[in-house]
Amino acid sequence: MENIIKKILREQVSGKERVRQMAIDALFKAYVVDTKRTMIDATLRDMNMFQPKAWDILENIYGISKYNDPELFNDIINTWISNVLGVPKLGSTIRIINMEDTQGPPPGTLGVVWRYNDTPWETQLSVKWENGRYLDVIPSVDEYEVLS
What we know:
It contains 4 helices and 5 strands, in the order H-H-H-H-E-E-E-E-E. The protein is an alpha+beta fold. The chain has 2 domains: 84 residues, no CATH class; 54 residues.
């Protein structure tokens, strides 16, 4: 099976996309089994502890490593994390609609999600705003839309 997957990876982009989706699905299943968590109660801390296993799955089953195909590897990990946590992918551009923080940017301001910040309550989005400031978005409180 490993040889078949590696062959698909060498084929056209559509083949690479199939492997990408298969790998993301495998990570979802392994995460739920390994952590005994559902997607509803997933936390960034759980995902960080699971990350070495995720890397192992990608490298040993799918032949994808952060060294031989860093772009695909990072895209799979980023997509998996954002889907499990229900947040935009790293690098996504968002527009703030309403922020409860008095220090927050005005409505309509654009920003780029550059990392996730784990809190006891939920995963927050660390955002670099177009005005040069950095301020976290709290998804359950602040309103935003994902542009890309």
